[in-house]
Structure formats: C-alpha cells, structure tokens
Design goal:
Order of helices and strands: EHEHHEEEHHEHEHHEH
Low-confidence stretches: none
Number of domains: 1
CATH architecture: 3-Layer(aba) Sandwich
Shape: globular
Largest sheet: 5 strands, parallel
Radius of gyration: 17 Å
Structural class: alpha/beta
Bound molecules: 2'-deoxycytidine-5'-monophosphate
Mean pLDDT: 95
CATH topology: Rossmann fold
Helix content: 40-55%
C-alpha cells in the first residue's frame, strides 16, 4: 500500500489539496482532523468539560466514531449519526484542538488511522501523520502558509457560505490554534525530518497540487 502524508497548520490548504490528489491517484482521502472534531463535538454536546483530561478520557469508551466512504467521499459518524457538516463549525475547531492535545484521545484514534493505511492506498492529512501515525509514509509533505494568508482564505470560505466573519477575530483564532497545536506535549504539529516543506502563501490550489504531483512522481514514479 502507498501512503502520502500531508501535515501542516490549519488553513494551509491541506484538505483541498489532499482531496484532489487522492482523486487523481485513485487513493482514499483520509481527513484525520475530522476524527478529533467528532470527539470535540461529542464533548460539547454531552457537557464534558474540554479542558478536563480526566473527564474527556472517561468519556472515550462511550464514543463511537467511524469514517465511512459514500461514493468515495469521507463521512464521519458519531454513533449512528452523520456529523460531517456539524464538525466544521468554528466552535468545534477549537474543541478539536483542545481534545487533540490529550495523549489518551490521540491513542484512542491512532489504530483507526493506521488501519486505513494498511487496507488502502491513502492520502492522509493532519498534524502528525508523517511524524507519528505513518512514520514510514512513501511521501511526506509539510504544507504551510502565513497566518495572514490562512486567515484570508478562511474569510473567503465563510463568505462563500454567506457567513459573516471578522478578520481580526479569525486571525486571533488561527494564531491560537497554531500555538495549541505546536506546543502540546504529545504529537505536536511539526515537520517530519524527511518531509518536504511547501509554502503555499503565493500559490493557488492548482500551483500547490502541481508542485506536490511533481514530488509524488519523483518519489514513487
Ligand atoms: O485539520 P483540522 O482543522 O480539521 O483539525 C482540527 C484539530 O484537530 C486541529 O486543531 C488539530 C487536531 N488534529 C491533530 O491534532 N492531529 C491530526 N492528525 C489532525 C488534527
């Protein structure tokens, strides 16, 4: 099986690129952030305090989270419920970032991610795919962009959905999430030693995709 790992901070364009790349190659796109988001959503809905590791850990045995593919598109199930849309809410992003700092949560989700890569050729995106989840991935990309550019992209996404957003508020949230993700004790966001870093600040999605395709071709032919 072939695995392509794409890591990097929120808003660098990982999911757009990973999805297109997977489609082109005929691989499965695995969005691992969705798993952390599902745990965050469960905690929000069940009054599990997000900063309380003991409480979140105690909730884990009650959480059934599953990735399912419908016509090649990833859906996230929490129990029987499809939460693929709900987990995109901004509050859920922050909740996901909080619970993802807990080693118990990461351990809970680790095997599920590895199993996907055992059974399928995958393009997997996240924060620790190249460092922890799939250290032997065939290709590792670390995709970045400045916080300002990532905020601008988020503004555009919201505008497209008709959601009003304030640039300064979003920028603060982007910076806060970067801090949380980079400074946590377990599996912090960082470039794997053997990952290729790509800065997407000056590139559009097509430019990034073309650059990654070149890297993939070089590495796996
Ligand atoms: O990629 P995303 O924005 O959907 O991720 C939501 C949060 O989950 C993010 O703040 C960090 C965390 N996450 C993680 O810790 N490890 C991953 N492999 C993917 C996401």
């Amino acid at each position: 099986m072939i695995a392509i790992a794409i890591d990097g901070p929120a808003g660098a364009g990982k999911s757009t690129i990973a999805r297109s790349l997977a489609q082109k190659l005929g691989y499965l796109y695995v969005d691992t952030g969705a798993l952390y988001r599902a745990i965050g959503l469960y905690c929000m809905e069940n009054a599990v305090p997000l900063g309380d590791k003991a409480a979140v850990t105690a909730a884990l045995p009650h959480i059934r989270v599953e990735l399912r593919y419908v016509d090649g598109v990833q859906r996230v199930l929490l129990g029987e419920r499809d939460v693929s849309e709900e987990i995109r809410r901004q509050e859920v992003s922050m909740a996901a970032s909080s619970v993802s700092a807990m080693d118990t949560v990461r351990a809970f989700l680790l095997d599920m991610q590895r199993e996907m890569a055992l059974r399928h050729d995958v393009v997997m995106d996240g924060r620790d795919i190249g460092t922890v989840v799939l250290p032997d991935a065939d290709v590792k990309i670390y995709l970045t962009a400045t916080a300002e550019e990532r905020t601008r992209r988020r503004m555009e996404e919201y505008a497209a959905k008709g959601i009003a957003a304030d640039y300064q508020t979003l920028l603060r949230e982007v910076n806060l999430r970067d801090e949380q993700d980079k400074n946590r004790q377990v599996a912090p966001l960082k470039k794997a030693e053997d990952a290729i870093e790509l800065d997407s600040t000056e590139l559009d999605a097509q430019g990034v995709l073309a650059a990654i395709e070149r890297i993939v071709k070089e590495k796996i032919g």
